């Protein structure tokens, strides 16, 4: 965009409207000039058209710079071709800062190194893609941390935090990102570079003499500040917690050096591109204690903030009933509900941090006494240990995602008035009037946020596909903007201006200060190339909205039942890009992203790609697109997203459905047919053992399997057992005695039945000792392998056969159990999605239980007894849970069973997915990624354990991967219970 004579930016032509030849020329130059990847395909552009806001703008292309020289080359190429550009970190902006036409620079994939960490100086030199938790892990051994504590700390990048001027729950004590930036290496709009930081007046004058863009900054900005001193003094809100506009107030301060590094913090990529940041670190408190006040209303919780602040807390956080109820519905977060008292309408989390635990406990007691004396709340929970705090912190940090989970179709809790802040002294009255605005417009909203600094994240539910609701949104935004000004507060307190709030900046700052900000933009960016349309000269709040831009979903008949508004596209479009799937050091979601750090390998990348395909005029044909399946290919179908994604995006089911349509168009590959028939193959392998085990040990045959089927030669094949579980069961003599517990159906899965029958034998013997009459169901397959290969018609036939077989043969209401979680959980989940109207399928799904539950009950009521002196006594049991088990029911039952063994220590690993994922790890093209996933956390955690530690895993694939990656044998839990069983009991 060029400036016309009066300095007003000329109207911008959307980069996406550039002629195809022009785009090809830019792409060609970028490929020649950059070491990083360059992508201009439609799917990549679609994925980067969105962030975590309500906006979407299609970029021209995306580059993934590897270093600062790549950034400089990209800025130069964009300038040469007249294309806007915008830098992007995790892409979790809530106000639309990281959506825009032009060239997107993804600085998170490669530029994510911690270059230096100086404990004595308490500084770190980092690239912009370094994640906040990554920096904190590196700083922790030195007793340090990065002060700003965002709820998105497991994916928020330092570059993105600088772009936004992010804060978080600890801002009462640590301030905002601007307070922790010491220096920045940047690329300017003309592709020159500069190091910004505090300079003396002498140094500023020296730099101002240069005939460069950097020299112009040091010449013209001081003059601009002097000329607008009154506007700066009068135009900025008095409240300190600000993340809007350009920080001319910082340059106007006479008590600090001239500092352009702090000045560009919060500029949202509109002035510079950061390539390195020197940040300050702060001492990490040794202890944290938390008081959780229980209240019968949001107003009551806010009213208790004054007492909390009187006790010198580190943070005071509010959470309303909306989020509490949603947390109870998700396995990942449900543990919070077990420790709360009663049924609160709101909670107030008050955190105290420091090095003296006794003193912190004293403050907890003082606060509880104050609340009791003043009648605030009806209970105060005191969480002192990390174990007591874990459930609290997990839900608090996931409040945004949990609130988003309440979306129904395109009616979503939207971020447009969610970032206001007022002095906490006015918060109760302000919130009351804020709610009155919502009530007048007939809107409901979720309330959460930082009471300690007067910032509440209020997100009204609106459906922006309805033009009337767009008008309502604008009316509410204008009323709230006026209300916050009345209280001397700020419209943007930590999420920035972006597209949601920039429109109001002229009115909020006043015409003189706003014009000074426009001059700032022109000084830094004369051609208006740097992320235009943010902070100044912005489009309307209601332009570029994501949901109205999507065409109605064309009709598509699916084989799976997607129980959401909008069917398959609605299931994919639930994703609002909050980016939890980009975390890299905890949980399971998303293993492929953890290995590649590639946006399209995260759950949200795949969901976005599916939304694009399912919005095409012929979605069935679009589901056969090879680029789409390149995006879906590395999904391990671990199902972690179903539980860990707060919005419950079930990528495993979406991929299975997409594969089925791909097969309709292109045919079913031979390897998929082979894996889909795994029960037949395993049965044949068992029948012909030991001869059938020879191919796994013969190099020539392994190479043949690689060439013909794509089965990785390096991957050990399972060894078939001649005396499989079915043969053993038929030939055994059942233990004598009554069976008072009733009948239980044991699902003889397609894997352990033929390769690890000793697990099934142990389970059957235990169940019979516990008084169960065990019925072995071995006549069919659950269809798990067919599902994983998109063979959904075959899976449906298998599901129907198995469900009706059990329904006919087992007593009504009797439990169904097994030892392979992926198979057992298929009866609970996918069978119902395949056959939603079949009564037998629904009945069997409700009867599925975990064998661990039955055995724990038997141990607790004395039907089974374990020896106190088994060989397990004194040992540590290191337990790795199966992904499907974690996603569907959690691992509590397994941990509980293992904990019943006398004298053992049970430690559950947080090591993510093992990387095997059934057939995935056997496939030649996936083998390396499979091992990379396992090597990330699982293998190191196991190899670090002494030989005496007993490794435990419920999944057959997990046990295979563990042995291959560590040469440690993993036991199934039922085997250990059998080992510890008292034979005389």
Kindly summarize this structure in a few lines.
By secondary structure, the protein is of the alpha/beta class.
Give a topology summary.
Elements: H1 20-33, E1 37-39, H2 42-47, E2 61-64, H3 68-80, E3 85-88, E4 103-106, E5 114-118, E6 123-126, H4 132-139, E7 144-145, H5 158-164, H6 171-174, E8 181-187, E9 193-196, E10 198-199, H7 201-208, H8 213-227, H9 229-235, H10 248-252, E11 258-259, H11 260-264, E12 273-280, E13 282-283, E14 287-295, H12 298-303, H13 305-309, E15 315-320, H14 321-328, E16 346-354, H15 357-374, E17 379-383, H16 386-397, H17 399-404, E18 411-413, H18 427-440, E19 445-450, E20 455-463, H19 467-486, H20 498-501, H21 505-509, H22 511-524, H23 546-549, H24 567-573, H25 591-596, H26 603-614, H27 619-622, H28 626-633, H29 640-644, H30 651-666, H31 670-676, H32 678-687, H33 699-709, H34 725-731, E21 742-747, H35 752-755, H36 757-769, E22 772-777, H37 784-788, H38 792-809, E23 816-817, H39 821-828, H40 830-834, H41 839-847, H42 851-860, E24 876-880, H43 883-888, H44 892-899, E25 905-908, H45 927-936, H46 938-943, E26 950-953, H47 956-966, E27 970-971, H48 973-980
Parallel strand pairs: 2-4, 3-4, 21-22, 21-23, 24-25, 24-26, 26-27
Antiparallel strand pairs: 1-2, 5-6, 6-12, 7-13, 8-9, 8-12, 10-11, 14-16, 14-17, 15-16, 15-19, 18-20, 19-20
Helix pairs in contact: 1-3, 7-8, 8-22, 18-19, 24-26, 36-48, 38-41, 42-44
Structure notes:
Helices cover 43% and strands 13% of the residues. It is an alpha/beta fold and 985 residues long. Helix 36 (757-769) crosses helix 48. The longest helix has 20 residues, at 467-486. The relative contact order is 0.07. The model is unreliable at 1-17 (pLDDT under 50).
